[in-house]
Structures are given as C-alpha cells and as structure tokens.
Design a protein that fits this description.
Blueprint: H1 2-8, E1 12-16, E2 19-23, H2 30-42, H3 45-48, E3 52-56, H4 64-76, E4 80-85, H5 89-97, E5 120-124, E6 130-134, E7 143-146, E8 150-153, E9 161-164, E10 168-174, E11 177-180, E12 190-195, E13 199-202, E14 205-208, E15 221-226, E16 229-234
Parallel strand pairs: 2-3, 3-4, 6-8, 7-9, 8-10, 9-11, 10-12, 11-13
Antiparallel strand pairs: 1-2, 5-6, 12-15, 13-14, 15-16
Helix pairs in contact: 2-4
C-alpha cells in the first residue's frame, strides 16, 4: 500500500490522444508540486520545448494560485499551456467559471496501461485491424496503448510503457516495457532496431532482459513466442511466423 501512496503523490507526464498531459497528485503542497513538475519537465526539456501541455488535476482540488504558478513555470520552460481539466465534474464547472475550458479525458475501463489509445492510421493492418502510428520518442513515465498493431518511429526509453493488442514495431531503440498481444494473443511479435527492453510480454508470457542491459541481438531483432516461450532472433523481413 505504501508503494501505491507514493505513486499517487508523483507528478507525471503521459501521452494521450489529447496530447501531453501533466497529471497532478492529491495531497502534495504547492511548493513540492512545483518542484516535482520542474524536475519532471526539465529532465527532458529539449523534448518538451515548444510543446503544448494539458494540466490534469484528476482528483486534486483546483486553485487559481496553482494554475497561475504552473502556467508561469511552463512559460519559463518554453511550454504552452493548452488547457486545464479535472476528473471531477464539480471541479470542471469551477474551471469553467474561471474562464477555462476543461477537456473530458476518458480513461481506459481496464487493462495494464492508464492512458488512451493512439489514434488509428487510415490504412488497415493485416487481418483488417487498423494499425496505429506514433512518431515520437517515449520518455520515462510516458505510456501508449493500441487496440491493434502499433508502429513507433522513435525510441522507447527506460520507464516508458507500450501496450498493444497486436504487434509492436519500434523504428529505434526499445529500452522500456512492452506488451504485445495484450489480450492474450501469442501470435503477436515485438520488433525493434535495437532490442534492449526492461521487460517483454507477449500474450501471457513474460521475459526480462539480461542484467548486462546489452542488446539481446546486436542488430534489428524480433521477439516472438516459440514452443511456449519468448525467443529473440535477428529480424528477417521475409519471415512473419
């Protein structure tokens, strides 16, 4: 339980279909809140510069003092404030009364990832399932969910999480946690230009990277299920199963 309380009291950034969202925890005083937000954003300042952020109060009670202070902080870091929102309807009404226009960020009903799916591309993937396409490097604390195949052009850094009902293809280095076939599909694959994951999951099977943190295969590689276990091998474009 102590671990859960610690997570609740952390400022986090996540990627959603509404863009980047800065989540504010309950029970954290304003000075600590600003310190955490600054530390989180400054750690990847080049990534966030000129970006837009939505401030999500979630269950925290909004205050004008905090919003002004956070807006000043974002401005200092070259980040634009797009909107301020909350999970609680009464808090969204309060934000509207202050002249703000809160978004309705819809959460996943269930599943391993707390974020929204990436919007589908216009082209269906093999089998009629729409492929999802994301052109962005995922930093620590960010996560992405897809109900089909997922293609990421960029790196998946340690601390980032990726979940897909179908395949996951990373045109970059995969260093975070990835779950393909998340609804129990053992036919899904995970492929990357460099496969250095914190954890791989395909269907109900789990595999962890060696403690050395070296690439599992020092060339483009694919992980798949063979004979009831996850194996990693060099990528061959002519081989799908």
């Amino acid at each position: 339980m102590a671990e859960n309380r610690h997570e609740i009291r952390q400022v986090r950034v996540r990627g959603t279909v509404d863009g980047l969202v800065l989540q504010l925890p309950t029970g954290l005083p304003l000075p600590a809140l600003l310190d955490q937000a600054r530390s989180t954003l400054e750690g990847s300042q080049a990534f966030f510069r000129d970006a837009e952020l939505v401030i999500d109060y979630e269950e925290r009670e909004p205050s004008l003092e905090e919003i002004v202070a956070l807006q000043r902080l974002l401005s200092d870091l070259g980040i634009r404030l797009r909107a301020v929102t909350s999970r609680r309807p009464e808090h969204r009404e309060r934000l509207r009364s202050w002249g703000l226009h809160p978004l309705r960020i819809v959460e996943r009903a269930a599943g391993p990832s707390p974020v929204l799916p990436v919007p589908p591309s216009s082209s269906p993937a093999e089998g009629g399932q729409p492929a999802q396409y994301l052109r962005r490097t995922l930093r620590s604390g960010m996560s992405v969910t897809s109900e089909g195949d997922l293609v990421i052009v960029g790196d998946v850094n340690p601390g980032a999480e990726v979940y897909a009902a179908g395949d996951v293809l990373v045109w970059g280095a995969l260093r975070g946690t990835v779950h393909a076939g998340m609804h129990g599909n053992p036919e899904a694959i995970i492929a990357a230009l460099r496969l250095i994951p914190t954890q791989l999951r395909i269907g109900s099977l789990v595999a962890r990277a060696p403690d050395s943190r070296r690439a599992l295969v020092d060339q483009p590689a694919v992980a798949r299920v063979l004979d009831g276990s996850i194996v990693v091998e060099p990528w061959r474009s002519d081989r799908r199963s």
